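Hi team,

As requested, here is the filled-out complex form for the zinc ion run. I kept the field names the same as last time so the parser does not choke. Let me know if anything looks off before we queue the next batch.

— J.
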Amino acid sequence: MQFKDIVGQESIKARLIQTVKDERINHAQMFYGPPGSGKLPLAIAYAQYISCQNRSETDSCGTCPSCKKYQKLIHPDLHFVFPVFKDKNNKPVSDHFIEKWREINLETPYFTFSQWLDKITSENKQASIYRDEAQEIIRKLSLKTYESEFKVMIIWLPEKMNITAANKLLKMIEEPPPKTVFILVSENRGTVLPTIMSRTSPVRIPPIGEEDMSKYLVETYNAQAGDALVVSRLSRGNLAEARNHFQTSRTRSENLEILNNWMIALVKKDIRACLDWSDEMSSKGRERQKSFLTFALHFFRESLMYRTKKPQLNYVLESEKAFIEKVAKAINLKYIQQINDEIESAYYHIERNGMGKIILLDLSFKLIRLIQK
Ligand SMILES: [Zn+2]
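And here is what came back:
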């Protein structure tokens, strides 16, 4: 991962590069900020830059032996820790999942926690950073470096670290062995244990700028400039989210169809159809459910804008205007805030590993009550 592969964030890149030039790389840093802003790829690109044998003023070279190993995430002085789940056969440590970790990162380093969960299990299991992992970290960092001047330990989502693991690591993070850099990458800094947080120096990674995001969407998805801007705004600087909009036009038209069927069931108060609908949705996996809910939320908001005649505030693609009109007619605007709150709450529970089927059915019943109250 090189800095040039990361969308936007130019001032952060410059700041990180400067720490290497000035030889004042902090031994324990916490990259934090909203999802989809590129914290993890920045951490990896920074580590690659630190280790590169032929770095330039603006980036690692991409071709030296160190970079080559970094590009595949197999450098022996680059270590990763991330949430995993327990099973009977193995210790719950990151090394058991490292192949999957490399795969998902090489596909896209802008993945979400629930995409990670989907990658490692199809069941509703909780993933954490466990005490066994802390022991592994201490063991790995007490070894000499193999090839680089620096050892780098990237801990993704330290907020998922349990308290025993954290306690074991406090001393290590406070006084790591020489030439060791911890980079913690947090999506929710408020929930990181304070004892860990106070031992790291914070680096805030903001959402990706609207212009940078638009440019990326135009280049990557061949999007029209107007649509790219709409999606950049909607995604609030979250690349994972923006991609959901474009990933394939199939997903988007599929979402439209699902929403259409759902709306018909809701308006007709057809309980049987709602049951079938939530059944079918629950078979699609967490990510898909979440992407649909985001889409639905967007449509309900837009239909409000449409009904209140503020077309200049409508962030909607040309091809979807007709449907917005239909949705706008079907719902009672007085309850739009409540409808949005219910959808957001369903999203929240699915994100936190709740049972999709029950959550979506419950949501349907609540919306039946609200839609034409
Ligand atoms: Zn290099």
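Two things worth flagging: Residues 3-204 form a domain with the Rossmann fold fold (CATH 3.40.50.300). DSSP finds 17 helices and five strands in the chain.

Thanks,
J.
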